[in-house]
Design a protein that fits this description.
It is found in: Cell membrane. This protein is mainly β. The chain contains eight helices and 40 strands. The strands form eleven sheets. Strands 32, 34, 37, 38, 39 and 40 form a six-stranded mixed sheet that branches. Strand 38 and strand 39 form a beta hairpin. The N and C termini lie far apart (191 Å).
């Protein structure tokens, strides 16, 4: 079966060679659009389109055709495939799909400068005829811009585009198909072209002169005023800087640029003085920062104006000369009232009022300096000491005599010049150690000195041994000549058991003037060392080095030793005497410590028969509390004979006897040098006078005429044998003895 396609008609036909026109064959189609867009006549094989085809939507359709036996419906031939192509006609106009268009070009650009490119598209078939061939043209704005007919590139047509006159243009660009021939379709778009700025305009001051006024007392940095230059350009092309052109104005004033407003700010650079000059004319120039060299032929991109500043007069405080302060010098040993220096201040006003001086005492609280209120002469009011304070910084005030509100201050620095009034001293209490087997000439220590003075020519010190040690045979001093000295051994064979410490006096003298000196001591220890020279042990008994003693020194030494021996003997004698006196007193007081006499105890094991606290607290008698207690003392804590007295005479017991005895004992103890120098517990066994109970002493019992028989004591056992011997009837041998 073969297919037949007709591209310029709406109807097509398929046919098979076996079709003899008898109607026995049935034609069918399948595929894209079969039965909807395309239908086929079963008898003839004619294919018809049921609707208008649009090539821009679909340019071809793929179908399959079959020829079947009408009776059996069997395929007579194999299925064949065919394509129906839709032929194009010019039915689509060109369209600008990327519009609206916005472009830009710099002002004053040359003719033919490229601006931008526009593109139109045509949906027709570009391979069939001229339906899709598009050409461009300008409908509106062709005086200033042109468009390339084939490419759509827009270019400038003039060279005098000025943004300051017109900053944008609206163009209408048309695109026509069929290569612009008659009958072609067309479309258009609007193109906006913005004219960008270039720096083609210089800055301009609206005025040629500006006037300001300023007080002469205005501080440095005070703004005087603002001026501004205008620029027809925009953006960074308007950025400008300002400067002062004349030399005089540049000394007194400074100009800066406000980055936000592009204004020139004129400020005071140096204090104004009405008396010196009352009017200042300052030339201020404005200059573009970004100059385009392409437009240099247009002229200078700068402009100038005059700023006139009038100075107003005010009453000013005195001015010191020099204004930055004064430095004075005075010798450390200057006498009271000595002139240190003079400060000067002057009233700068036309009246030239007199000035009075004073010192701000907060800067000179010790009143070391005084100042003459009229002349400004500074004198010394106190003794100076450079080592305490090398500089004194004071503030001097100057006021107008007729207007004390006009006051000014000036700093005065006074340097104290050094005088040699401090002797040099050893830097530290030096100590050195040597081995017993030290060799002669061995350096054992280096010493240096300190001096509170600071001579202008520097320090120079001289070292020697003190006169009492110059002839010693043990050590020598070596002056190194660089303000240090070394100590060397003069002999060998030191013995620390004979002498283990040497005190070497060293005399140090400075260079003056006047030359001052001091003596310091170097302590040298003799130590035991191991074979490598490492110190093992040292003793600390000191012997001052002295090769010889004068007779007077020997006599004084012997007298001191004799006095010490006498003092030691006196102290020992006094101690022995007081010790004997103390022992005799102790023997007198050897008695039983019993205060309560009329109680019979229960023997040695009875500890409840009487109150032991009474024996331990002899000072704590209830009479001390009688003044504050209405019920009187507690009689239960006192011996019965005292209770009886208190109950018999109204509770008023007399303890003066005991108080006197205790006071006497206290005084004896305080005066006894043999007792410890701190509080101690003393027990006094004093019974008092007129005791109602008889004495229990066995000594007095022997002398009585009592007829009581004590022979029963012999039956009490070994413990009472001694007592029974005292009370047994007398024997002849005892009487004889």
């Amino acid at each position: 079966m073969k297919s037949q396609l007709d591209f310029d008609c709406l109807d097509c036909q398929i046919h098979t060679d076996s079709d003899e026109g008898e109607g026995n064959i049935k034609y069918t189609i399948s595929g894209e659009g079969a039965g909807t867009i395309f239908i086929i006549d079963e008898l003839t094989g004619d294919i018809h389109a049921t609707e208008r085809l649009d090539r821009e939507e679909q340019s071809y359709y793929t179908l399959r055709a079959q020829a079947r036996d009408r009776l059996t419906n069997h395929l007579l031939e194999s299925e064949s495939e065919f394509v129906i192509k839709v032929q194009d006609i010019n039915d689509s106009e060109p369209k600008f799909l990327e519009g609206p268009y916005i472009g830009s070009v710099g002002e004053l650009s040359q003719i033919g400068t490229s601006v931008m490119k526009v593109t139109a598209s045509d949906a027709d078939d570009p391979t069939y005829g001229s339906s899709a061939r598009v050409v461009y043209s300008v409908l509106d704005g062709e005086r200033f811009f042109t468009v390339d007919r084939q490419t759509g590139l827009i270019r400038t047509a003039v060279a005098d585009l000025d943004r300051e006159k017109q900053d944008r243009y609206e163009l209408v660009v048309k695109a026509t198909d069929m290569a612009g021939q008659m009958g072609g379709l067309s479309g258009s778009t609007t193109v906006t072209i913005v004219i960008t700025d270039v720096n083609d305009n210089p800055p301009r001051f609206p005025q040629k002169m500006y006037q300001f006024s300023m007080s002469e007392g205005a501080a440095v940095g005070t703004p005087v005023g603002r001026v501004i230059a205008t620029d027809a350009d925009m953006g960074e092309n308007t950025d400008m800087s300002y400067l002062i052109k004349d030399e005089e104005g540049g000394e007194l004033f400074k100009v800066t640029t406000d980055s936000d407003t592009q204004e020139a700010i004129i400020t005071i650079k140096k204090a104004l003085d009405f008396e010196s000059k009352r009017t200042h004319n300052v030339v201020v120039e404005a200059v573009n920062k970004h100059v385009d060299p392409r437009f240099s032929e247009l002229g200078s991109f700068r402009d100038q104006t005059i700023v006139r500043v009038s100075v107003n007069d005010i009453d000013e405080p005195p001015v010191f000369h020099p204004a930055e302060g004064t430095i004075l010098e005075v010798q450390e040993d200057a006498r009271l009232g000595a002139l240190v220096g003079t400060v000067t201040a002057k009233d700068p006003d036309m009246e030239n009022a007199p000035v009075r001086y004073s010192i701000d005492r907060s800067t000179d609280q010790e009143q070391i300096f005084h100042i003459d209120p009229v002349s400004g002469a500074i004198t010394l009011g106190n003794i100076l000491d450079r080592e305490t304070a090398g500089w004194h910084n004071i503030t001097v005030m100057a006021v107008e005599a007729d207007n004390v509100s006009q006051i000014s201050h000036s700093s005065v620095s006074i340097r104290i010049l050094d005088v040699n009034d401090n002797p040099p001293e050893l830097a530290t209490p030096y100590e050195a150690s040597i081995c017993e087997d030290a060799k002669p000439g061995q350096l054992i220590h280096s010493i240096s000195v300190v001096d509170r003075d600071e001579p202008q020519l520097g320090h120079r010190y001289y070292f020697t041994l003190a006169p009492e040690a110059t002839n010693n045979r043990h050590f020598t001093l070596w002056d190194v000549k660089d303000n240090t000295a070394g100590i060397r051994t003069q002999r060998s064979g030191f013995n620390r058991h004979e002498q283990n410490v040497y005190l070497l006096p060293i005399l140090v003298v400075d260079s003056g003037p006047p030359a001052l000196s001091s003596t310091g001591t170097l302590t040298i220890h003799v130590c035991g060392c191991d074979p490598e020279g490492t110190i093992q042990s040292c003793n600390a008994t000191a012997y001052a080095i002295s090769t010889s003693l004068s007779p007077g020194a020997l006599i004084a030494l012997l007298v001191c030793m004799l006095i010490l021996i006498v003092l030691v003997l006196l102290i020992l004698t006094l101690k022995r005497h007081r010790k004997g006196q103390s022992m005799s007193e102790d023997e007198e007081d050897m008695r039983d410590n019993v205060i309560k006499y009329n109680d019979e105890g229960g023997g040695e094991q009875d500890t409840q028969a009487y109150d032991m606290s009474t024996l331990r607290n002899l000072f704590d008698f209830p009479e001390a509390k009688s003044g504050s207690s209405e019920s009187g003392p507690d009689l239960r804590t006192l011996p019965q004979w005292i209770q009886g007295r208190m109950s018999g005479d109204g509770g008023a017991a007399d303890f003066s006897l005991f108080k006197g005895y205790i006071r006497k004992k206290v005084e004896q103890t305080d005066g006894d040098l043999s007792v410890p120098p701190y509080d101690s517990f003393q027990t006094y066994a004093f019974e008092g006078n007129s005791s109602p109970a008889l004495s229990l002493s066995s000594i007095h019992t022997l002398s009585t005429t009592s007829e009581q028989d004590f022979s029963y004591l012999s039956d009490w056992g070994p413990r009472f044998r001694q007592l029974a011997g005292y009370y047994a009837p007398g024997h002849p041998e005892e009487d004889g003895s």
